Amino acid sequence: MCGIVGYAGAPDLDASALDVILDGLRRMEYRGYDSAGVALLTPEGLVARKRSGKLARLLQSLHDDPLPRSNTGIGHTRWATHGAPTDANAHPHLAAAGRIALVHNGIIENFAALRAQLRDEAGIEFVSETDTEVAAHLLAQAHAACGDLSRAMQDVARRLEGAFTLLAVHADVPDTVVGARRNSPLVVGLGEGANFLGSDVAAFIGHTRRAVELGQDQVVTITPSTVTITDFHGNTAPGREYAVDWDAAAAEKGGFPNFMAKEINEQPRAVADTLRGRTDGEGHLTLDELRIDESVLRGINKIVVVACGTAAYAGMVAKYAIEHWCRIPVEVELAHEFRYRDPVVDSRTLVVAISQSGETMDTIMAVRHAREQGSRVIAICNTRGSTIPRESDAALYTHAGPEIAVASTKAFLAQITACYLLGLYLAQLRGNKYHDEIAAILADLRTMPGAIQKVLEGLEQVRTMARWMADTRSVLFLGRHVGFPVAMEGALKLKELAYIHAEGFAAGELKHGPIALIEPGQPVFVIVPSPRGKDSLHNKVVSSIQEINARGARTIVIAEDGDDEVLPFASEVIRIPQVPTLMAPLVSVVPLQVFACELATAKGLDVDQPRNLAKSVTVE
Ligand code: AGP
Fold this sequence. Notes:
Elements: E1 3-9, H1 17-27, E2 35-42, E3 45-52, H2 55-64, E4 72-78, E5 93-95, E6 100-108, H3 111-122, H4 132-146, H5 149-159, E7 162-170, E8 177-182, E9 187-190, E10 194-198, E11 210-213, E12 218-222, E13 227-231, E14 240-243, H6 248-252, H7 259-265, H8 267-275, H9 294-299, E15 302-307, H10 309-326, E16 330-334, H11 335-338, E17 349-355, H12 361-372, E18 376-381, H13 387-390, E19 394-397, H14 410-430, H15 435-446, H16 448-456, H17 460-468, E20 474-479, H18 483-498, E21 501-506, E22 523-527, H19 537-549, E23 554-560, E24 572-576, H20 585-602
Helix pairs in contact: 3-4, 4-5, 8-14, 8-16, 10-14, 10-18, 14-15, 16-20, 17-20, 18-20
2-deoxy-2-amino glucitol-6-phosphate binds next to helix 10.
């Protein structure tokens, strides 16, 4: 997820395009901060500057070596998806001998084929590893053919697959910025003598609250006095104007009260983007970030997951799926315990290091130990260029976008999704699953963003309950099978956000001791497996609910639509959609995230930066 800004202002306005663009990039830096860049149309032609690292590095460069004044330009702050965060991979990308500059937010799924075509047929020599540079050269070709920048953007947009928001300027088209969007956000800001484009309203909230929402597959052209919207075929399309009712601070959170709430609501997108672009034209999984020889992967006889906290719970969920699909034993190890127990790992062990930040020292040390033992390591990570993928043999990136809140939410769902992709890739490679079986599971996975969105739209009951329970001092979480790690994650969320004692455990463990904790009124969340799932597991969990209900517990049951067997024993029922057994964690965890967030909010706590915690624990 990146932040992009476009500006076209009347030359006689006392406004510098660079100042407007940098102001917008500052407000959107939360969307990505691997690198940043700007391109301006000036009397001296198109000029561009870009730097890897945070926006401050670009600002320093612009201070030391200023650009000419301009009234039109584009800007970008990057969250790397293709290509490490380097100066060369930073946006904007140039084409037509520097006469075109383009920035991009999203993932162009068919960029590899287009890149090869440009290289082979037009002799284009690429200077970056990005999918974005392909779009820049395509735009140059299209503009050379038709001579109209808007029409050229329409032609290019029709050729691209995946998710993209593109903005471009051309040295020969003054006072003009052209944009296109598909499956990626772009909004217009309407000013006086100036117009704006941005990934979200934070791009221009400091200058105008009048916005125009763009629809799917649309091209927009702004000048200081006009806004023209068409579809990808040039047909005029309407834009819906609205007044932004957020202030500048809220705008950086997309109108949500905090980053935690924003990121919970970004989960459908995080799962969809993590799935995006992972199959070839025949539907075969192509995890091109994996650089481990297929023969090695065919030869592994054990998988060990090393991770901490929420990432470890994602690994616990993945264990059930990977063992079921690949028939390989999967151990999940807390990274900080791993190397001190003298683990049995060797060249036939595949170690999977899961980490949102890629900088968790416990996990880094586990990776180093595993490699010293001759094991191959795959990193599942949300941060390109971070230490863990860099020190691994291969990486499979989640595309959840920057996760700002300390308590992990969208990264958890993206990690599960990426682990499932790895499991299916291994099943495909090792022949455990037929192509059609894998395709069917992928098709189910692609329905999950919609299922998650459905849960997000029905959580007022959970919020109300959380506010009622603000004085609660202890909450238990029960789950079984893939619901067990969800119970652990639900407890962790409540601990780290609301500072309440919470414990998650396997429902089957209840009668082996924890049931002694049950007293009248004790709140217990129970994640109930699907009655359509593994034989009799559902009934066993319903029995657990009966046991604690009989002892006066307040049973808050998460059960799928239509499961009425839980009703006699549930104090509250939170409904989730019917989804495949192994995918249930992607929906059952959401009410627990929202419950913890809402209860912490009701207690007046800082949900984005809870006490004593850090987003990345870079010490052992
Ligand atoms: C999760 O809400 C916590 N912030 C914490 O457990 C976190 O998941 C853990 O520290 C691992 O971080 P990583 O994914 O960046 O390695």
